[in-house]
C-alpha cells in the first residue's frame, strides 16, 4: 500500500506532509513524531477522529491522505548531570516527575471536554460566515441526513451518466447547483468523522457556482472579502432545492423533500384600502422571517410584528375599471347610453384621482408552521458616510422560548389551541409531580432525623390517587374483547385498546442555535455559531462519549415537554426534528471556526447586542409539539 501524507498538530506546532504507511502499526508513526517533537512514544497520545489510537491498531478504519492527527504529551526535559555533593537533597522520585510530565495541557483538556460535541471547521481566509451556517445546519438532523442522501443520489446519477454527457453540461447552472449540494453532503460526512475539517473542496464548489465568493480586496496581496451569513444560507437552500428537481430557488416551482418540510413558512397577506373599501389577500411563503429594528424595537416579538406589517400604494382607480360596488355609491355614478366615462359625477372623479393606500399585515398559517423557524435580525443598513453596510448595535432581547400564536391567522389557530391546552396540562402535571417528590424527600428526611410524623399517610394518599386515576382511564378508554378462549364458563378479560394519537404544534418554539456577528461593519467582522447540545443527537453521531453527560441538572424554569416527530409535515408534525424542550441544564457549544468551547444557557441570552461583543444575527428555533388523541384534530 503506498504511503499517505498526514498532518499532526501538537500544541502550537503543526507538522505537515508526514508520510505514513497504513500497513504499518501506529507505533512507527509515534517513532517519527518522537524525532520531530521530542515526546517519547510512551508519553504520546495520538487522537484521530475523536478516538485515541493504540500502538497496534488504527481503530475502525485507517486514516486517509490529508487526515489530521492531534498529538498529546510533553517532551521530556534534557537530563542534567546529577550533583552528588552531600549538601544537595535527594533526587525527586522518577515516578512523580513522570506523572507531572504526563499532565495534559490546558488546550488538551479543552479538546477532550468538547470533542464529543462536534468538530471544528478551519477558517480559510474570511470563511467564518460559511463555517457558522454549516454548523447550525449540521445540528438539524433531518436536514443533515437529507443532504447526505441527496449527495449519494447525485454521485450515483453522475456515475451512470459518465462518458455520455457533454463537456458543456458541466458548466450549466443546474450542474453547478448539484455540485454545491453534493459538496455540502460530503462536508457533513467529514464533520461526522472530525476532529477538524478543512473545507477546501466545498469552498471550490461554492466559488464555481457563485464567483462572488472568490472576490478579493483590491491590491496585489488582496485577501478574500467577508460575506453575509444569511445570504450564504439562502445559497445552500437554493442548491438543495434545485438539486431535488425544483425549477426555482425561491418558494415556487415545486416542493423539495429536504428544505421545504423543515424551513418553509406559509403566510397570508391581508390588505385593505380604507378609502375605497377594497380588500385583497394573497398567500406566499418564506424561509427566513425578518426582525425589523427601529427606535421603538426592544425585543424579538416587537421586531417580528413590525416586519409583518405591510403598506402598499396603488394607482388611482380608472373610470374604465371601477373597484367595486362598495367603492362607488349609486349617487355618484349613473350609467347611460353605455358610456360610463361620460356619466361619472365630479365627486367620483375626484375620488378616483387619489392613489389608493392598502394597509394590513402578513399572517403565519398555523396549520403549516415549520419545524424549524429561522429569524434574521435586520441589523445591517447602508451608511452613506462610510459607503458600507454598518451595523445597528441596539439591544434586542430574544427569548429561549418563542411564542408566535398572536402572529398566526385566526382561522388557522384551532390545532394550535388544542396543542397549547394539552401542553399546559402536561406542564402542570409535571410541576405537581415535582412538588410531590419534594414532599416525599422532605418527609423521608424528617423520619431519618426522628422529627415529625412519617410519610406513610402521604404514601397511602398517593396510592389511592393512583388507583383513582387508573380507574378513570379505564372508564374513558375503549374496551376490546379478547378473541379466542375455548374454555366454557371462563369470563373473557377485557383489554384496553391504545388510543391513536398525533403530534400537533403549539405555536411555541425553543431556541436551538444562534449565529452571531462581532464588529461594526458587515465586511469587517467575525461570525460565530452557538449550538444547543441537549443530548438528542445534535453532535450528528460523531465519535466520542455520549452526549448530555454534563447537562443532567433539572430545569424547572422551562418545564417543557419532550417529544419527537417524524413523517410528513401535516397537523403540525415537526418533520422528524428531535423535539425535547425539557432540555434540563442544556450545554451550549460555541463553534469559533475550529475552536470549540462550552457555555451556559445564561450566556446565550447575553448575545442581545448593545456593544462590540458578539450579538445575535440569525436565530434558529425548533417547534415544540405535543401528542393529543387523533379524535381531537380529526
Automatic annotation (TrEMBL):
Entry keywords, A to Z: Hydrolase, Protease, Thiol protease, Ubl conjugation pathway
Which SMART domains does the annotation name? UBQ
Q: Where is the composition biased (Basic and acidic residues)?
A: 426-435, 446-455, 464-474
One Pfam assignment: UCH
Q: Gly residues composition bias: which ranges?
A: 562-575
Where are the annotated segments for Disordered? 79-102, 426-498, 531-579
For molecular function, the Gene Ontology terms on record are: cysteine-type deubiquitinase activity; proteasome binding
Ranges for the USP domain? Answer: 119-624
- Would you indicate the residue range of the signal peptide? none
Q: CDD domains, alphabetically?
A: Ubl_USP14_like (cd16104)
The Enzyme Commission number assigned here is 3.4.19.12
Q: Please list the GO biological process terms of this entry.
A: proteasome-mediated ubiquitin-dependent protein catabolic process; protein deubiquitination; regulation of proteasomal protein catabolic process
Entry superkingdom: Eukaryota
Domain Ubiquitin-like residue range list? 4-56
What class does this enzyme belong to in the EC scheme?
A: hydrolase
- Catalytically driven reaction(s): Thiol-dependent hydrolysis of ester, thioester, amide, peptide and isopeptide bonds formed by the C-terminal Gly of ubiquitin (a 76-residue protein attached to proteins as an intracellular targeting signal)
- PANTHER family from the xrefs? UBIQUITIN CARBOXYL-TERMINAL HYDROLASE (PTHR43982), UBIQUITIN CARBOXYL-TERMINAL HYDROLASE 14 (PTHR43982:SF1)
Concerning its family, UniProt says: Belongs to the peptidase C19 family.
- The protein's name: ubiquitinyl hydrolase 1
Supply the source organism for this entry: Polytomella parva
Amino acid at each position: 500500500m503506498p504511503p499517505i501524507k498526514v498532518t499532526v498538530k501538537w500544541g502550537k506546532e503543526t507538522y505537515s506532509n508526514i508520510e505514513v504507511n497504513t500497513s504499518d502499526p501506529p507505533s512507527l508513526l509515534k517513532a517519527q513524531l518522537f524525532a520531530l517533537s521530542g515526546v517519547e512514544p510512551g508519553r504520546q497520545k495520538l487522537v484521530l477522529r475523536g478516538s485515541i489510537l493504540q500502538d497496534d491498531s488504527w481503530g475502525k478504519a485507517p486514516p486517509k491522505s490529508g487526515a489530521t492527527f492531534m498529538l498529546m504529551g510533553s517532551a521530556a526535559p534534557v537530563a542534567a548531570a546529577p550533583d552528588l555533593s552531600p549538601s544537595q537533597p535527594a533526587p525527586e522520585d522518577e515516578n512523580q516527575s513522570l506523572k507531572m510530565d504526563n499532565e495534559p495541557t490546558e488546550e488538551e483538556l479543552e479538546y477532550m471536554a468538547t470533542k464529543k460535541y462536534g468538530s471544528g471547521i478551519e477558517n480559510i481566509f474570511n470563511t467564518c460566515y460559511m463555517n457558522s451556517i454549516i454548523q447550525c445546519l449540521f445540528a438539524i438532523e433531518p436536514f443533515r441526513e437529507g443532504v447526505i442522501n441527496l449527495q449519494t443520489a447525485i454521485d450515483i446519477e453522475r456515475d451512470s451518466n459518465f462518458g455520455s454527457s457533454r463537456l458543456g453540461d458541466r458548466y450549466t447552472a443546474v450542474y453547478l447547483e448539484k455540485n454545491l449540494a453534493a459538496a455540502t453532503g460530503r462536508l457533513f460526512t467529514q464533520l461526522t468523522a472530525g476532529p477538524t475539517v478543512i473545507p477546501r473542496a466545498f469552498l471550490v464548489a461554492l466559488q464555481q457556482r457563485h464567483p462572488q465568493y472568490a472576490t478579493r480586496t483590491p491590491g496585489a496581496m488582496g485577501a478574500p472579502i467577508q460575506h453575509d451569513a444569511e445570504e450564504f444560507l439562502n445559497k445552500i437552500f437554493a442548491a438543495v432545492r434545485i438539486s431535488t428537481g425544483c425549477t426555482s430557488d425561491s418558494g415556487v416551482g415545486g416542493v423539495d423533500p429536504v428544505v421545504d418540510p423543515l424551513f418553509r413558512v406559509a403566510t397570508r397577506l391581508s390588505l385593505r384600502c380604507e378609502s375605497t373599501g377594497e380588500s385583497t389577500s394573497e398567500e406566499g411563503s418564506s424561509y427566513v422571517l425578518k426582525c425589523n429594528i427601529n427606535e421603538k424595537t426592544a425585543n424579538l416579538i416587537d421586531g417580528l410584528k413590525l416586519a409583518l406589517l405591510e403598506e402598499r400604494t396603488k394607482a388611482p382607480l380608472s373610470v374604465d375599471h371601477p373597484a367595486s360596488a362598495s367603492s362607488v355609491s349609486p349617487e355618484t355614478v349613473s350609467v347611460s347610453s353605455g358610456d360610463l366615462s361620460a356619466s361619472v359625477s365630479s365627486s367620483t372623479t375626484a375620488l378616483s384621482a387619489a392613489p389608493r393606500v392598502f394597509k394590513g399585515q402578513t399572517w403565519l398559517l398555523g396549520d403549516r408552521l415549520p419545524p424549524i423557524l429561522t429569524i434574521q435580525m435586520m441589523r445591517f443598513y447602508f451608511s452613506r458616510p462610510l459607503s458600507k453596510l454598518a451595523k445597528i448595535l441596539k439591544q434586542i432581547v430574544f427569548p429561549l422560548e418563542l411564542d408566535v400564536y398572536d402572529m398566526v391567522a385566526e382561522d388557522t389557530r384551532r390545532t394550535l389551541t388544542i396543542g397549547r391546552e394539552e401542553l399546559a396540562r402536561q406542564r402542570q402535571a409535571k410541576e405537581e409531580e415535582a412538588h410531590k417528590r419534594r414532599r416525599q424527600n422532605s418527609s423521608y428526611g424528617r423520619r431519618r432525623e426522628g422529627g415529625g410524623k412519617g410519610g406513610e399517610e402521604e404514601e397511602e394518599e398517593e396510592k389511592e390517587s393512583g388507583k383513582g386515576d387508573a380507574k378513570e382511564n379505564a372508564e374513558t378508554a375503549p374496551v376490546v374483547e379478547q378473541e379466542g378462549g375455548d374454555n366454557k364458563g371462563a369470563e373473557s378479560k377485557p383489554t384496553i385498546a391504545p388510543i391513536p394519537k398525533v403530534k400537533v404544534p403549539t405555536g411555541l418554539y425553543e431556541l436551538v442555535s444562534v449565529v452571531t456577528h462581532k464588529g461594526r461593519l458587515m465586511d469587517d467582522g467575525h461570525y460565530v455559531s452557538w449550538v444547543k447540545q441537549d443530548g438528542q443527537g445534535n453532535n450528528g453521531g460523531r465519535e466520542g462519549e455520549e452526549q448530555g453527560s454534563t447537562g443532567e441538572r433539572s430545569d424547572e424554569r422551562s418545564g417543557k415537554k419532550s417529544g419527537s416527530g417524524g413523517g410528513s409535515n401535516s397537523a403540525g408534525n415537526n418533520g422528524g426534528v428531535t423535539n425535547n424542550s425539557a432540555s434540563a441544564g442544556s450545554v451550549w457549544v460555541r463553534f469559533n471556526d475550529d475552536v470549540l468551547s462550552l457555555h451556559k444557557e445564561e450566556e446565550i441570552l447575553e448575545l442581545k447586542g448593545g456593544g462590540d461583543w458578539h450579538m445575535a444575527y440569525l436565530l434558529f428555533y425548533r417547534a415544540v409539539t405535543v401528542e393529543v388523541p387523533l379524535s381531537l384534530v380529526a
